[in-house]
Amino acid sequence: MAGPSHAGAVRLILNILWFIFGSGFVLALGYGLAALVCFLLIVTIPFGVASLRLAVYSLWPFGRTVVTRPGAGAPSAIANVLWVVLFGWWIALTHLLAGIAQCVTIIGIPFGIANFKLVPMAFWPLGREIVDVD
User: What are the residue boundaries of the Inner membrane component domain, all occurrences included (predicted)?
Assistant: First the structure.
């Protein structure tokens, strides 16, 4: 029983460090503001929901993963194509470059991995959901 509690403690420590030093707060704030703008424009509400999902995931990424939501069909695929063209490619590229920069130092490797985990979600967010690893 020491394994699971140890893993949970490590995840908690990594999430706290990510929140403070790994840009978790800044990312969540940025995604939250983007969601607010999307909600105000009404037509872009699905993108606002995706931005909120990204905000929550970027706030506390360790111990969670992204899975494809069953039942997400053609509308989410079409919206994802629009997302990629307008926002997704440069947001994913930013996470990729930040992850590479963080992996340069040994202590930054877990934060780099967290940024790499955010790349697919930032690139193609609709039709996915965030679940706990356990």
Answer: 13-64, 78-128
